[in-house]
Amino acid sequence: MDPTEKLQKIVSILSDPFSDVSQLTEREKEAAKLGSYGFKLREIAVEMGISVSTAGDYISKVQKKTGLNKGELTRAFIEKIVEVLMSRQD
Q1: Overall pTM surpassing 0.90 (yes/no)
Q2: pLDDT value at residue 10
Q3: Per-block average pLDDT, block size 10, for the chain (90 residues)?
């Protein structure tokens, strides 16, 4: 899958949880967003009020469902943020 396809897939899944058969739960989306912002598992756990183990489980499920690793998730979010900011300048 090329980078554009990966970005489209993750943005689609995270923006519309019903867009894919392997949909993400709200908690998985929350963990993915925090992870993409650079939060470590311990920080994700504190922010979400869960154990580090559960935070790791959420991230693993997101990676499995999307086919993206943490770095790719981060890049996808950064690219989406830049796209949104650029569209607001028009």
Answers
A1: no
A2: 66
A3: 67 57 77 82 95 94 80 73 68
Type of residue found at 5: E
Q: How far is CA 21 from CA 65, 69, 78, in A?
A: 9, 19, 25
For residue 46, give the amino acid letter.
Answer: V
State which amino acid sits at residue 30.
E
Which domains does the chain possess? 3-89 (1.10.10.10)
If we measure between CA atoms, which residue out of 58, 64, 26 comes closest to residue 44? 58
Sign of CA dihedral 34, 36, 38, 40: positive
